[in-house]
């Protein structure tokens, strides 16, 4: 039987056939077990001899099967190694490297600047309450200034934030009257028509500084640093009186034209200046609603559109290019700094 098994094993070259043959010999109904069928009819001495014979056959058969199994496994490993052989002389695969989206790059530049100036980065939810987005910013229900920030409502009290100012509110409430120095970058939403300069979704970076003896001079210094960082070291800024419910006094901030340097051109409408953001000193009423004593703590806030300054930096004329996912547009910024 063992000699016959050896011959059959020589013809086996895969595990499935090996397992089938093993079941034929060593299974409960296999050839070796079948030898025990007439055990009850034998004398005690014959039973002893037959039992020893069957155990010997099982041991020899198991050893043969184990050896053949190792042989098949080794053959499979050799075959796999042959298939996985690497030809080091072949050209390597070319991996196309992407680039940081220009809007994200502007945010990174702003974060690097302000963190270096000692600011912290604050974040908040994009789905906000009416209280944090408007009421605590001195924009009660029915205030006409809300029309400029008409957004998308989930219900009368929940909405998509129209500015990142709610992050400032949340930070002020959490700080409980302590000094603050933060920027709040993130996505915002308004019901604007989609055209070359407007989008229903856009990005902002707002800043808030609260402390003792904070003045407009501190605000102008921070904004000048930002303009130089994003738009070039030769940029200048000017502040013009304006109105925002959450700041008093409020200003519009202009930067010297990135195209003509202030001499006057079609981009700046021959004025030499381009408006880039709004800012001002935090309104006393806003401070009081957020737990601050305006007689002890003062501060400034500003908000800049990321798309706005990115378009000026790179000379982009259509805001929709940022969201079209056109690789021809995005690849332009691979080497841009």
Estimated helix fraction: 25-40%
CATH class of the largest domain: Alpha Beta
Number of domains: 2
Question: Which ranges are low-confidence, i.e. pLDDT below 50, for 5 or more consecutive residues?
Answer: none
Q: Label the CATH architecture of the largest domain.
A: 2-Layer Sandwich
CATH fold label of the largest domain: BirA Bifunctional Protein, domain 2
The Rg value, from CA coordinates, equals 39 Å
Describe the structure.
The structure is a single chain. With 337 residues, the chain is α+β, with helices and mostly antiparallel strands. It has two domains: 2-83; 102-333, Bira Bifunctional Protein, Domain 2 (BirA Bifunctional Protein, domain 2, 2-Layer Sandwich), CATH 3.30.930.10. The protein has helices spanning 2-10, 15-26, 31-34, 44-83, 102-116, 130-133, 165-175, 216-231, 284-289, 306-314, 327-330, and strands at residues 120-121, 127-129, 153-155, 158-160, 180-189, 201-211, 237-244, 247-256, 273-282, 298-305. The protein has a seven-stranded mixed sheet with strand order 1-5-6-10-9-8-7, sandwiched between helices. A three-stranded antiparallel sheet has the order 2-4-3. β3 and β4 (158-160) form a beta hairpin. The radius of gyration is 39 Å and the shape is elongated.
């Amino acid at each position: 039987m063992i000699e016959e098994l050896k011959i059959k094993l020589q013809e086996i070259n895969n595990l499935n056939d090996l397992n089938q043959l093993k079941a034929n010999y060593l299974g409960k109904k296999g050839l070796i077990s079948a030898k025990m069928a007439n055990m009850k009819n034998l004398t005690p001495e014959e039973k002893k001899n037959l039992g020893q014979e069957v155990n010997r056959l099982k041991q020899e058969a198991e050893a043969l099967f184990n050896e053949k199994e190792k042989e098949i496994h080794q053959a499979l490993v050799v075959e796999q190694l042959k298939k996985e052989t690497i030809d080091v002389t072949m050209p390597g695969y070319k991996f196309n490297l992407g680039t940081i989206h220009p809007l994200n790059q502007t945010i990174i530049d702003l974060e690097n600047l302000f963190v270096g100036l000692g600011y912290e980065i604050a974040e908040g939810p994009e789905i906000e309450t009416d209280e944090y987005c408007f009421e605590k910013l001195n924009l009660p229900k029915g205030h006409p200034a809300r029309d400029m920030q008409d957004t998308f409502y989930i219900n009368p009290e929940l909405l998509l934030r129209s500015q990142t100012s709610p992050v400032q509110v949340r930070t002020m409430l959490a700080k409980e009257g302590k000094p603050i120095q933060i920027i709040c970058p993130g996505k915002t939403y308004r019901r604007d028509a989609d055209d070359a300069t407007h989008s229903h979704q856009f990005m902002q970076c707002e800043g808030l500084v609260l402390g003792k003896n904070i003045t407009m001079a501190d605000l102008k210094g921070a904004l000048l640093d930002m303009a130089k960082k994003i738009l070039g070291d030769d940029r200048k800024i000017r502040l013009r009186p304006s109105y925002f419910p959450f700041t008093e006094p409020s200003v519009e901030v202009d930067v010297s034209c990135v195209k003509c340097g202030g001499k006057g051109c079609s981009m700046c409408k021959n004025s030499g200046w381009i408006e880039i953001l709004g800012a001002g000193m935090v309104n006393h009423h806003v401070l009081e609603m957020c737990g601050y004593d305006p007689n002890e703590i003062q501060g400034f806030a500003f908000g800049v559109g990321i798309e706005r300054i990115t378009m000026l930096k790179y000379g982009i004329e259509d805001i929709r290019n940022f969201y079209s996912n056109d690789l021809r547009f995005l690849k332009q910024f691979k080497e841009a700094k």
